[in-house]
Amino acid sequence: RRLPSTASRVSASARRSASLPATTLAGEGAALGATAALPGRFDQRTFDVSNAFQFTKGRHQVKLGGQVTFVRYEQDWRWGSGGLWQFGDLDRFGAAQGTYYLASGPATPVQFNSTEAGLFAQDTWAAAPDIQVLFGLRYDTQILPTGRIALNTAWQTATGVRNDFTPRDRKGISPRFGFVWDVQNRSEWVLRGGAGNDVLLGG
Q1: 151 near 163, Cβ under 8 Å?
Q2: Angle, CA 201 vertex, CA 200 and CA 203 arms, to 5°
Q3: Calpha distance 25→39 (Å, rounded)
Q4: In which band, very low, low, confident or very high, does the pLDDT at 144 lie, cut at 50, 70 and 90?
């Protein structure tokens, strides 16, 4: 039996202004005011397509499917563009003795796309009239754009680390196992259990 394909669009946009500049009290480990990332614009548009189908063969019910998600990010912000106050402790804050940082100059909006794809297979086996055993396997991957970050040679010379590296995730395998025991097949007492390994993309 084939399940209908689904597609959805989700868009979210945020442009916020900093009312009170970000302020930190180092001695107390406290912070107040807005985050130093504001004001800024953080926009994300997502297009998702997924499909699955299942069939039964003997005592096995098999389900196969996949999903592809396209995400476009647009960000326009500068750290500290709304001002950042730093004080050593509460006494210096009360005496207005601290440092002030402000990032100035034109901002450079950033736009990039990413693609997330996943495939899964699941088998529900009727091991007995009152016991079902589930085996599942899922694979997820994330594709980030390449060649979009300019190499900073001064940074590479000082640290030995390239700043234009784009990570690639090819280890997104998530197995899982579960069972359902309907004691005496009477739907009065049901015992469920399972275990699995969920992979976080980019982790």
Answers
A1: yes
A2: 70
A3: 21
A4: confident
Q: Residue 133: is its pLDDT beyond 70?
A: yes
Q: Which of 120, 119, 126, 124 is nearest to 177 (CA)?
A: 124
Residue 179 has a pLDDT of 94
Helix (H, G, I), strand (E, B), or coil: what is residue 133? strand
Contact 145, 164 (CB under 8 A): no
CA 140 to chain centre: 13
pLDDT in tens, 171-195: 788 999 999 999 888 888 999 999 9
Q: Taking 90 as the threshold, does the pLDDT of residue 6 lie above it?
A: no
Predicted confidence at residue 19, as pLDDT, reads 62
In whole angstroms, give the CA distance from residue 86 to residue 52.
54
What number of other Cβ atoms are within 10 A of residue 77's Cβ?
20
Residue 201 confidence class, pLDDT cut points 50, 70, 90 = low
E strand or H helix at 140: strand 131-143
CB neighbour list of residue 78: distance below 8 Å, 6 or more residues apart: 40, 103, 105, 107
One-character DSSP codes across 7-70:
EEEEEEEEEE--SS-EEEETTTTEEESS-TT-SEEEEEEEEEEEEEEEEEETTEEEEEEEEEEE
Residue 66 main-chain phi, psi, to 5 deg = -155, 165
